[in-house]
From TrEMBL:
The keyword Oxidoreductase applies. Residues 191-291 form the Fe2OG dioxygenase domain. GO terms for molecular function: L-ascorbic acid binding; metal ion binding; oxidoreductase activity. InterPro entries: DIOX_N (IPR026992), IPNS-like_FE2OG_OXY (IPR044861), IPNS-like_sf (IPR027443), Oxoglu/Fe-dep_dioxygenase_dom (IPR005123), Plant_2OG-oxidoreductases (IPR050295). Belongs to the iron/ascorbate-dependent oxidoreductase family. GO terms for cellular component: cytoplasm; nucleus. Involved in the regulation of shoot development and salicylic acid (SA) homeostasis. This is Fe2OG dioxygenase domain-containing protein. The keyword Oxidoreductase applies. PANTHER family: OXOGLUTARATE/IRON-DEPENDENT DIOXYGENASE.
Length: 338
């Protein structure tokens, strides 16, 4: 396996290898860029003991999930020191020698630890400008033993992120008119699958020719994401690609396919992509929080009725992940009711 980082560092690149050149789709070409303020949720208000303040925050959370499927969370209580540490030590993993990194090169989608490149080199017709480290951090924690401090940092970061997402899921349940712990119980979140991914997007001499990651949705319930100072994430909103410039010390939250299925389309998973740059290496850390692997996900019965038929067929989360590993467009192919 030849990583993008090694490719960039192996020579003075002036052009992009042909197997990385992406053919743009009509969707890529038709949509245009626009700067727009990304919606924000104040976590402190969402967890407030003041019932009026919390109720207002829950309503705002529901509005953001319905209208955007994407938002920033501020005042979340995770220290800036820890957030910076996980980015720094995440990047240090990619600075290891090829031999050291290859110790963690898994081959299966649900391997506990998996280092790789692109999306899935076994099926990708075009390679993407991205190296990654994926770790299953829940219900059993897994992380590389190198570099020395990475495992301990990821464990603390995963625990803190889990606390944030679980409160968001409570708020989302209430925003749907359901009992506070509805999503936790129905999706068996306590034993849910949580996959932490550290992405490395090295600088590219011709960024307009490649993609860090193509247009896609995430497969879980919610993804909690942070990045270093270099942007590249773009979301699709009302026919436009909007570059994401997060507020300092904020988390980005992305709604996933299982949330769309569970809510019967009320809260849709958001389409997004990653572009690269010539300036430097972008590092992002995303944790996909999903149901238990053996949970069968279907529209919540409380959100289905005679005037609101089920739009999606039931599917076991484990099976959905396997299908997702073959194509990042599994949502269009699998979850619509037929």
């Amino acid at each position: 396996m030849f990583s993008v980082k090694e490719l960039v560092e192996s020579s003075t690149m002036v052009s992009v290898p042909s197997n990385y050149v992406c053919h743009k789709t009509p969707e890529d070409s038709m949509l245009y860029y626009e700067t727009e303020n990304i919606p924000t949720i104040d976590f402190h208000q969402l967890t407030s003991s003041n019932s009026n303040e919390r109720s207002k925050a829950i309503q705002q959370l529901g509005d953001k999930c319905r209208d955007w499927g994407f938002f920033m969370v501020i005042n979340h209580g995770v220290s800036e020191t820890l957030r910076e540490k996980v980015l720094r030590e995440g990047q240090s993993f990619f600075d290891l020698s090829k031999e050291e990194k290859m110790e963690f090169a898994g081959k299966k989608i649900l391997d506990p630890i998996r280092y790789g490149t692109s999306f899935n080199v076994m099926v990708d017709k075009t390679l993407f400008w991205r190296d990654y480290l994926k770790c299953l951090v829940h219900p059993h924690f897994n992380a590389p033993s190198k570099p020395p401090d990475l495992r301990e940092t990821l464990e603390e970061y995963s625990r803190k992120g889990k606390e944030v997402v679980e409160e968001l899921l409570k708020g989302i349940s209430l925003s749907l008119g359901l009992e506070e712990n509805y999503i936790h119980k129905s999706m068996n979140v306590e034993l849910g699958c949580k996959m932490l991914v550290i992405n490395c997007y090295p600088p590219c001499p011709k960024p307009e020719l490649v993609m860090g990651l193509p247009t896609h949705t995430d497969h879980g319930l919610l993804t909690l994401l942070q990045q270093n100072q270099l942007g590249g994430l773009q979301i699709q909103h009302k026919g436009k690609w909007i570059p994401v410039n997060p507020l300092p010390n904020s988390f980005l939250i992305i709604t996933g396919d299982q949330m769309e299925i569970l809510t019967n389309g009320k809260y849709k998973s958001v389409v997004h992509r990653v572009v690269v740059n010539t300036k430097g290496t972008r590092i992002s850390v995303g944790t996909a929080h999903g149901p238990n692997l053996d949970t069968i996900v279907s529209p919540a019965p409380e959100l289905v009725g005679d005037d609101n038929l089920a739009l999606y067929r039931a599917i076991k989360y484990r099976d959905y992940i396997y299908c997702f590993s073959k194509t990042m467009n599994s949502k269009q192919r699998l979850i619509w009711n037929v």
